[in-house]
Amino acid sequence: MDELNKRMGSGKLRLGGTKGKADWKLKAELLPQRYTTRWDELPEVKLY
């Protein structure tokens, strides 16, 4: 990787996710439900 960056220019090749600070934020309301890992997110079933 160092050799390729020397030949192609600094920063041309890098590991995934190491670009720097993200310019976006994840919206919490768009997160999927975690039914298999969170008891408080299990759907409630009511019988009539």
Question: What does it look like?
Answer:
- The longest helix is centred in the N-terminal third of the chain and has 7 residues, at about 1-10.
- This protein has one helix at about 1-10.
- The chain is rod-shaped, with a radius of gyration of 22 Å.
- The protein is built from one helix and no strands.
- With about 50 residues, it is mostly loops.
- About 0% of the residues are buried.
Using brief descriptors, characterize the structure shown.
48 residues; little secondary structure; 1 helix
- Quaternary organisation: single chain
Strand tally is 0
Instruction: Average the pLDDT over all residues and give the rounded result.
Output: 77
**Strand composition percent:** under 5%
Number of helices: 1
Termini separation: 64 Å
List low-confidence stretches. Answer: none
Shape: rod-shaped
Radius of gyration, taken over Cα atoms and rounded to an integer in Å:
22 Å
Helix content: 10-25%
Q: Sheet bearing the most strands, described?
A: none
Order of helices and strands: H
The helix-and-strand class reads: little secondary structure
Secondary structure layout plus pairing:
Layout: H1 2-8
Describe this structure in a few short sentences:
The protein contains one helix and no strands.
